[in-house]
Amino acid sequence: MQKSSDPFENWAEKAHDLPSIEAVSALIGAIYDCALDPGLWDATLVELKEMFRCQDVILGMTDLASGDTILTKSVGIAPFWLERLPFHAAEVASWQRLATVRNLPLDEPQVISRHVPVEVREQSRMEREWAEPQGRVDSMSLVLMDSPTRHALLRLGRHKDVGVFTEREIALARVLVPRLRRAAAIGDLIELKMVETERTNQALDALSVGVIMTDAEGGILHANRAAETMMRGDGPIRSTGGMLRTNLPSATQELHSAIALVDREEAALGKTGLGVRLTNPGEPPMLAHVLPLKQSEARARVQPNAAAAVFVGAVSNDANGAEAMSVAFGLTPMETRILAGLLAGQTLQQVAGALGVARTTARTHLDNVFAKTGVARQADLIRVAMQTSAIVRP
Fold it and tell me: pTM value?
């Protein structure tokens, strides 16, 4: 089970001049509303811009299989500069090779002024041709989704009149990252379709993912067709005496802990109930995400008297960021094919067999990929591939 500790604890002690708990809680509620209605992201980004004292905010979600941009929202940045951002993608992606960046935990904010050395920034065309003309003095990136099929990133830009990001903004970002990730993950599961509250049951039944509405104890109040199918068959969830259960005791415990937590105070819900794995290693991955309902008028209309909605969906492993890595790091065609196989979940031996080369040859190409990307482990390679894809793909 995930740890219950959260950066929101002891909020007033985190840094100087932080917003009030009430203000942050209201913003968290607005973020959760975006999970069911992506049209609300525009107003929420404005709130983020003001709370972080930023010049601009950009939210992007990319389909790594097709290269399509699923969702792009921005405030405070002119179309002229948005159109020119992809021209600097390779340079920005190369920063992922820096030890100060690649060694960061995935949930940790990436801040240019702190994690990209001064000498690198002084030689940067991105800084000289894109950031400086806009008066942009700093940038912070928050990774919201990092899967084989999706990558979502929130970028915040700081104007020189305000100065670089401080401990205040980093403390705030650490609090908001899991909440933003929850909204992005659920929005992706329901394919960013707004749940029409006037016809809630019909809208939920049209979804291919399971949705279960529960009370504060985990009792099932309503399940859509996909969830009912899962519970009738040999699926990852079931109903026992009207209570939501999974095949894994640890997953059941975490889901019930998250549901009980949101019934008391939704803003206190951090990583608990986010990306809960419902299947054993080696089985096709199924994840569950808990969304608070009753403390927002918009979400409460989805199911009266419900404390939470649990979204259950599969994770696809058929896509990768090999093409984006090829662009960013100058990989050869064979190196790109080797990387694509590994990112799709194959072993090096399987990749070599599929390509008709010896394992030693495949190993040589993989070593070249490691050298070009500046990492030494496949786990780090996957992380860089996902981050790179969101930047390089148009």
Answer: 0.77
